[in-house]
Amino acid sequence: MIAWPDLQTPRARIRMADTSDALKLLQYRVENRAHLAPWEPLRESDYFTLSHCLQTIEHGREQASLDRAYPLMALDVDEEAVLATLTFANIVRGAFQACHLGYGVAARMQGQGLMREVLEAGIAWAWGELGLHRVMANYMPRNVRSARLLAQLGFEREGYAKRYLQIAGVWEDHVLTARVRPDA
Ligand SMILES: CC(C)(COP(=O)(O)OP(=O)(O)OC[C@H]1O[C@@H](n2cnc3c(N)ncnc32)[C@H](O)[C@@H]1OP(=O)(O)O)[C@@H](O)C(=O)NCCC(=O)NCCS
Q: What is the rounded distance in angstroms from the CA atom of residue 60 to the CA atom of residue 53?
């Protein structure tokens, strides 16, 4: 049984959301709608409602209890607002022990090293409690910020996948990268 993370970094607390966080998640979605839209799947208008946020949180907790995915939020230290999100998704056990990593930071926190701080802590947890061996993260070639962040974190390029994910309604090529647990 995996103990869900509750991580503290200098600027953030990182944990699973519970239903009492739904309003904070909604605020994050609404405030960052335009900022995130070019890098995410198309969102229906109900995505920006409290009931959809509640559904997302409940689904996320169910996925975590099944060890399939851990969608985490990074809040400010007083837990007043969501600053960033990170998700260890598509977890495969057995001989692979791998997952995909997704992430985003609030527009107002961009360019401050916060995403890197949060991901360093999250990835350390993934090597430890989660017992993963490989974390994979993929980005569109024009997502320069994401490319720089992954390089800083030690992710290495493993390939290039054409028409890989449907982002903002378009099947987009992605650069495939991964980081492997250092001591394994
Ligand atoms: C991709 C994304 C998470 C990158 O965020 P970011 O804030 O640029 O990443 P970092 O946390 O690594 O911050 C790096 C910047 O902070 C600066 N910085 C300031 N203080 C810092 C510190 N203490 N430590 C490290 N960097 C610091 C760096 O110099 C760098 O600045 P620059 O952007 O001017 O070069 C963000 O652009 C985002 O949320 N985009 C939309 C969603 C998205 O694309 N998700 C990923 C899909 S693959």
A: 10
CATH architecture of 6-180: 3-Layer(aba) Sandwich (3.40)
Domain ranges of the chain: 6-180
Confidence of residue 184 (pLDDT cuts 50, 70, 90): low
150-160 burial, b for 16+ CB within 10 Å, e for fewer? beebebeeeee
Q: For the segment 113-141, what is each residue's pLDDT rounded down to a tens digit?
A: 999 999 999 999 999 999 999 999 999 99
Ligand 1 centroid to residue 45 C-alpha, Å:
28
Q: Is 184 exposed, middle or buried (0-12, 13-18, 19+ CB in 10 A)?
A: exposed
For atom 1 of ligand 1, which residue has the closest CA?
146
pTM greater than the 0.85 cutoff: yes
